[in-house]
Amino acid sequence: MTTPSTPTIELKPSSHPLSGAEREAILANPGFGRHFTDHMVTIKWTEGRGWHDGQLVPYGPLSFDPASMVLHYAQEIFEGLKAYRQPDGSVATFRPEANARRFQASARRLAMPEVPVETFIEACDLLVQHDKDWVPEHGGEESLYLRPFMIATEVGLGVKPASEYLFIVIASPAGAYFPGGVKPVSIWVSQDRVRAVPGGMGDAKTGGNYAASLLAQAEAIGHGCEQVCYLDAVEHKWVEELGGMNLYFVYGDKIVTPTLTGSILEGVTRDSLLSVARDLGYESEEARVSIDQWRRDTESGALTEVFACGTAAVITPVGTVKTNGAEWTQGGGTSDSVAMKLRDALLDVQRGKAEDKHGWMHELG
């Protein structure tokens, strides 16, 4: 469902934005996803008309009918990307085009209209520009997290692709994901639950995938672990990803991430690290990794580290791994580990401290 039209976004800024003092109090300890900026961008899509009525408006509640189709048939997709304060005071977002392309892929999978890449980026840019004071000052890991999303708004209970949609971008200041420092995370490898199946929606960023992960996540906590790791749905042996992060395996000077199979989300951080690793002199590749290989290579010492990656946490070392009848501990997680070197290198690019060799940073001025 392609819709190439690019709408004009009308500016209707808030007449009562949060005061500077209130905003600074929030930025002193924003957490993650708990506070939101003064504005949001909304754009409508209607069958036969395309994208229209783009607006930047004050952040606030949405009003829609109880029979809106998103509430019944879950036509909903979203993205997550960040804006960073640069050393000169300007602001830049990280790889927004990659998120825009993935948003289009998710839309195709859920039979939703595709937001043009330029519209996606313009909406994000406008929101950041108007709420620029919400971007934390340069110096740490703090950033402004952007959440573009789209929902089906047609009213009706017939099971079909909706004929009306709403695209929205909101923003939330984000502090360091690990306020006390990066610590290894414990993993429960689920043998009974799967995240996605071949031909399903595993490679789409849709809320249903995350809802499906909540029970397995609760089971992981019940086993004393912080995150759940999923295996493939067919053989139940190939490592895929965590509930919200991709995985990487470190073999000395080589890092390996599970091959995309259609049931793994193609993370932007995951893709970026393949290049960052090569920039630092490591070999990087995609390959299938079985749960038996994971345990065997850890015990032999061949597998030196494992880490998870994603937009929110960047890189998280894996510590304890548990599954039915087995438990082992990964090495790594130290300040001189491969994971931490990659993390620092990526953050340095995002914060403008290192050369942007790949043209990833989108400057807003």
Automatic annotation (TrEMBL):
Pathway: Amino-acid biosynthesis; L-isoleucine biosynthesis; L-isoleucine from 2-oxobutanoate: step 4/4; Amino-acid biosynthesis; L-leucine biosynthesis; L-leucine from 3-methyl-2-oxobutanoate: step 4/4; Amino-acid biosynthesis; L-valine biosynthesis; L-valine from pyruvate: step 4/4. InterPro entries: Aminotrans_IV, Aminotrans_IV_CS, Aminotransferase-like, B_amino_transII, BCAT-like_C, BCAT-like_N, BCAT_family. The keyword Iron does not apply. One of its GO terms (molecular function) is branched-chain-amino-acid transaminase activity. SUPFAM superfamilies: D-aminoacid aminotransferase-like PLP-dependent enzymes (SSF56752). Its EC number is 2.6.1.42. Belongs to the class-IV pyridoxal-phosphate-dependent aminotransferase family. This is Branched-chain-amino-acid aminotransferase. It comes from Streptomyces monticola.
